[in-house]
Every structure is written in C-alpha cells, then in structure tokens.
C-alpha cells in the first residue's frame, strides 16, 4: 500500500510514518501545508528549507501547498487528488492521537480524494508514545509553545525527563492540544541528522516561536 505522509516536520507525523513503514506500507511522498507566502509551515512554523532538508534525508519528494485558512481544506483535497494520481497512492498517514474532530476531517478529505486515512498512533497513551519515540531513535526539539509553558522551553530536546516534567505540570507530553510543537532533527528514516540554522526566540500574542535565520 503506497502512502503520503501528512508531514508536519514534528515527532508525531514522523513516528506515525515509522509505524506505517513497520506495518509494511510504502512511503512515496510528503505533504505539508504552508502559510500564504509558501515559506513557513502552517502547523509548526518551520521554514521551507528545513522541510526540504528533512525530505532529502528520507530520499522522498515533498509537496508544499501555500494556503489561507479559508482555502485550506479545498487546497488540501486538490493536493491529495493530484498526488494520488502521480504517486499511485492508496492511503494518507496522519500523526493524530485522539482529537476526534481531526480524525473526522482527515477521513473526510481522504474520502474526497479516494484514499484511506491511516492513523497509527490513534488512542495510544501519551507518555508511552513519547517514550517509544525516544526509544526508537527520534531526536526532536521544541520549536513553539504556548505562553503558559514559556519561551524557556524553546530549543529543548525532548527526553524522558522532560516529558515527565511536562506531565507533572499538567501539560500534555505529546502537545496534542497545541501546547507545543516539535521538529525532528534525526530519526531512523533519515540518512543523517538535519543541519540546524541559527535561530532567535519570539513571542507573538500568546505563543512563543523559534524564528530561523533561513526564514
């Protein structure tokens, strides 16, 4: 079964992709939705240069689609339809864990494109998932977080100890509710780690971001 990964650049989409590969599915392409200017990803605020690095380390093509929030769904469906034909896809893999509205949306857009939505991480225990990701060789850093966590967490590499610290503070260790987002630096799917550009930290409204020099 050939699949596209809904690739955020973060740990959950990465581990979902690893799980799909372990189940015998074949990755063919990555898909990422960008902001209107096409230079920064919508979900994690990653620059195009880093997304391309990640794809190159996996020897996979990446399709990036600029979109406003209003046109997001229509453009996503159109992209799925086009890459389904180009790469002979059967499925799309997503990293969501238990937000039912997200799953409903993913199944909706996949149905519109005539492919299956696959969610390998669905309804698994959060802290167990993080520990599995780390045990399976995913190296990932926090690249954005809410103001309650604070900018001190930006740039931190995820560890078992950090995950426990977050849980102790009442923060979802997977960031499933948007508390924070991560970026994968290295994993078994990569031929080698990505090269990180220099960065600064910025607070915008109620969220803290890493701003990369390549932006």
From TrEMBL:
GO term, biological process aspect, one: protein histidyl modification to diphthamide
GO molecular function, one term: diphthine-ammonia ligase activity
One Pfam family cited in the UniProt record for this chain: Diphthami_syn_2
Positions of the Diphthamide synthase domain: 3-210
TM stretches of this protein: none
Source superkingdom: Bacteria
InterPro entries membership: Diphthami_syn_dom (IPR002761), DPH6/MJ0570 (IPR030662), Rossmann-like_a/b/a_fold (IPR014729)
Name assigned to this protein: MJ0570-related uncharacterized domain-containing protein
Organism, scientific name: Flavobacterium terrae
